[in-house]
Known about the structure:
The chain is mainly α. The protein has one domain. The chain has ten helices and no strands. Helix 1 packs across helix 8. The longest helix has 29 residues. About 4% of the residues have low confidence.
Amino acid sequence: MSPEFLLTALIVCISPGTGVVYTLACAISGGRRAAFAAAVGGTLGTLPHLAAAVLGLVAVLQTSPALFSLLKYAGACYLVYLAWQTLKDRSRFEVGTEDTASFTAIVMRGVLINILNPKLSMFFLAFLPQFIGPDSLSPTLDMLLLGVFFTLITFAVFIVYGLGASFARQRILNQPGTLSAMRYGFAACFMGLGARLLFATA
Length: 202
């Protein structure tokens, strides 16, 4: 495991994306438990894409524009749905309350967010082979191991983001102006990420 891979993977994971935004939203609305559930869901949602890249199934997405478009539109619609839920579900941001959604429900939302993003498969296929040497005796196994480490780094980053947001949660919840701004901010992020996915190309 080269230092270059670890550093690059960390930079990629730290960059705010759908999983980070979702984890932060859950941390603010539901505290540490919800943040942990979101981190678990977001991480689990990357595993099918890793498997697809390792097994070469991503070639199906590359050669089938219709399938890629279907996943892309489904993912974009789901992000828009999350934006709408964030705006209308005021009860989830009440002072002194925890997120009423179950642990499993939060996990499943996180899983869906990443499963419905076909660009993740492309990312794994483009990113991981760069760190496999030409003299590798088992490139498939090496790619799988790199993917597992990348997933672990992703989970750790989600947890750090979530814990940081949950520690600031009470202060944020006691400031209605900040609370309202964050609600609209999270909704705008989900909308923006959905739009970016909508215009993604295979």
